[in-house]
Amino acid sequence: MKVLEPLFNPKNLALIGASHSEGKLGGIILKNLLKSHCCEGGRLYPVNPQWDELMGVKSYSRVEELPDEIDIAVIIRPAEEVPQILRSLSGKAKFAVLESAGFSEVGQGELQEEVKRIGREAGIRLLGPNCMGVYNPSAGLDTMFLPEARVARPAKGNIAVTTQSGAVVSAIFETLVQWKMGISKAAHYGNAADIDESDLYEYLIDDDESGVVISYIESVRDGRRFIARASALAEKKPLLILKAGKGGSGQHAALSHTGRLAGNYQVFSSILKEFNITECMDLEDLMDSAKAFSLEAKRKGKKVFILTNGGGSGVLASDECARLGLEMASLPGDARDELKKEFPSYYVIGNPFDLTAQAKDEDYGKILERVYDSYEGFAVIALSAVVGTTEGLAKTLIEFGRKGKPLVFLTGMDETGNKLAAALEKGGVACYPTPERAVRALKRLLEP
Amino acid sequence: MIEKKGVKEFLDSIGKQTILEHEAKSYLKGLGLRVPEGFFLKKGAGLLKSRPLDFPLAAKAQSRLIRSKTEARAVKLGIRNIEELESAIRELVRVEGAEGVLVEEMLPDGIETVVGGISDPQFGPVIMFGVGGFLVEALRDVAFALAPATMEQARWLISQVKGHQILKGIRGRPPVDMEAIAKALLVVSELMATELIEEIDINPLAAYPDGAVVLDAKIFVKA
User: Fold this and answer.
1) How close A343 comes to chain B (CA, Å)?
2) Which of B122, B140, B158, B162 to probe by mutation at the A interface, max A CB count within 10 Å?
3) B4-33+109-221, what's its fold?
4) Which residues neighbour A235 within 8 Å (Cβ) at sequence distance 6 or greater?
5) What value of ipTM does the predicted structure carry?
6) What is the crossing angle of helices A361-371 and A393-402, to 10°?
7) Which residues of chain A are within 8 Å of residue B114 when distances are taken between CB atoms?
C-alpha cells in the first residue's frame, strides 16, 4: 500500500480542538468532517475537554482516551500545545494534520523543528503545520477549515491539487466550481515540515483518479529530490507547476556575475525546462492549462488551423500562435479549391478561415472534416452574437473533438454562448473566454 | 570526469577563498580550455624578456582585495611596446592588494559569452550560460542547468538563451564554435559537481568560429 494512502482514505479520524461552534475553526472542520465516509459508524473522534457530545457526535475529553490506531489526527490547537499533543499521540496515530499556525511562517522555526522531531520519533507523518490538510471527494474527506457556505467544494473529478498556500486552495476551488470541473485529491501542506510536494507527487503517480496534477510552490527544500519526483510524475500524467516568488535577483552575497544572476526563481524555472516539466506563469495559466488537460490529451504537433466567424478574433488567435511558435500552415491547394467552390465568395478561405457573421453551424463541421488530416491542433471560434451560430454547433464539435486531436473553443458570453460552452466542456472540449487564452491552452496540448 | 581529489589539491595549493584570474586560468588550461598566451609577473619581479609575446598586450593587476578589475582601474589594454608595458606594470602593482600582474596577448573580438557555476541553496551545483560578457547583468539573458551535465545538456543550455541567434551567426557572420562553449560548460559543471566550489565565473568566454578562449576567470572556494 502506498505510504500516503491513509491520509487520503482514512479508516477513522480524530479532531483535536473540535468545537460545537461554526464560528470557530474547530467547528467548521468538524462540520465538514461529518460528511466523510470514513466517519460513518462512529469512527470520527472529536476531542474537546469540556463537552461529551459535539454536533451530535460523541466527544472525548483527552487524547489519551482515544482508541488506538488512528489514521489521521487533525490538530487545531494553539501552536505551543502541538508538541505535547503529538507526544500523546505517539503509537496511536499514523498521520497528523497540523492546521495550527504560528510556526516557521512567523519566525518560530525552532517550534517547527521540535514538532518535526517529535513526529519522527513518534512515527507520525505530519502534514503542515499552517495548513488546511486534505480534500478527497471520493472519500467524502474534507479537513479544510473553510466554511462551505463561503468556499464551495468542487465535485469529484480528475484534477489533483498540491499547494503550499491556503489562499490558492480557495482560488482553485472557486474557479473549478464555476467551471463545473472536479477534483480527485487536494492537499494543502503549508510549511511542509515533513510531507511536501515530492511525497504527494509520489502518491499521485499511481492514483488513477488523478489525470492532471497542479502544484503551487513557494519553495522546495531539496531541489534534487523534487526534480526527480516531478519528472517521474510528469512521465505518467501532466504536471503543471506555478512557482511563486519570481521577484528578487541574486540569492547570494554574490561574488560573481553568476551569483548575482542566479536568483531562486531563475534557477528553478531553468531546471523545470531542462527536465521538460510544464511551468505555468500565473494562476490563470495554471487553471486554463488544468482545464485543457482535464478534458483532453496531449498530442505531438504544432500545425494549427483556426476557424472563426469573427475576423478580429481569428487574427488575435493567429498572432498568439505566432508568438508561441505554433505554425499557421496555409490550407493545402486542393482543399482550398474545393472549399472555394462549396462556400460563398465572401467567406475568407485560408488559415485563419473566416466564415464571417453569416456563418452557419453546418459550415464548421464540413470545413473541419475537410482539413482534419492537414493539421495537428484546432482553434474554433463561434461568437454567439450572430444568428447563424446556435447551441446545435456543440454536437458537431464534440464529435470532431473525439477524433483525438486537440481542439479549443471560444464563444460569446451571452446565454447561447454560455450554453454552447457548457455543452462542449461536458463533451470534452475546452472553452476559453479570449482568443489568446484559447491558443495558449492549445499550445499546452501540443507537444513540440 | 574531473576528479575531486585533483580539484582539492589545486584549491589547497592556493589555500585562499578567492582564486585569482592567473591561477584559475592556468588550472583551466590544464583541464583543456584555451586561454590567451601570457605570463604572470609577481610583484617586484623583473619583466620576463625571455618570454616574448605579440603586441598589443593586456596587463591586469591580480588582487584578492578588489571585486571588479575594471572599477579598480586594474586593467591596461592595447599596450603597444615594452616601454608601455613597463609603465603599465609599475602602475598596476600599486593597485590595492596587488600580488602581481598578468600580461597577455590581446585577441581579436569574439562574441562574449558567460559560463558560470554556483552552489544553489535549492538544487546544489548548477551551471549557467549567458551571452553578453560585461553586459550580461544588464541583459539577464542566461539559463541554468544541473551539474554535472552531459555534453548534450550543455548544448541544450546554450540553445536556451536569446543570444543563441547571435552565436549561430547573424548578418553574414559565421557561426561560433558551440562545441567549444559546451566543453567549457562541461568543465565548469564537473568542477561544480565536486561540491568544493561556491562560485565560478568565466566571463567573458570569447567565442570564435574556431574555438573559445577564457578571457577572464574567477573561482570562489566553499568556506
Assistant:
1) 44
2) B122
3) D-amino Acid Aminotransferase; Chain A, domain 1 (3.30.470)
4) none
5) 0.93
6) 20
7) 257-258
